[in-house]
Amino acid sequence: MFDYYSDLEPPRPITQLLRTLLSKPQLAAYIRSLHLDGRAWAAHEARFKLPKIYIPEGQLNESITFIHRTGVPYRDLWCRELCDGSVDALVALLLAHLTSLKHLHLGYAFTRQSTLTGIMLQSAICEPGTYKLGNFQSLQELSFLHREDRDEACYMMAKNTAAILPFFYLPNLRHVSASIQNPDK
Hints:
Number of strands: 6
Order of helices and strands: HEHHHHEHEEEHE
Largest sheet: 4 strands, parallel
Strand order of the largest sheet: 1-2-3-6
Number of helices: 7
Number of domains: 1
Radius of gyration: 16 Å
Structural class: alpha/beta
Helix content: 25-40%
Low-confidence stretches: 1-9
């Protein structure tokens, strides 16, 4: 496996947060707000290449064990994507820990690909109790933003509706700001 981190580059804050939550899962209950933007990251260095965030190998086993414990049928895909540095898999993993959120902002680089995030949210919100995932019932504010133009890295227009739809089943959701593409005919 490619080791993303060099001696000069510190781990990304998102992986540090995940490491803390894996080692002390009780802390997740205290996190009420999450803001992942990545605006500069999406606009410049990742314009033609999707970003990758690799979890250090020592933490990867804990993440994979957590995913397998959820019991979701797509756990092998989720684990492969996580090992490959998929931002989507990382965001899904982080959100799977943060089920007490009241405010969630996902923007730009963190929503460029959101298939696994959408599937995980579908499982958690629309199939409560089926899998070992929270149900996000406390969520009140959601911001799920995406660039509204062609994504050169994906060679297509962004398709994120499936990732956002599960949120509309939440009874306490009061404010939504989302970029959703028009559905195909």
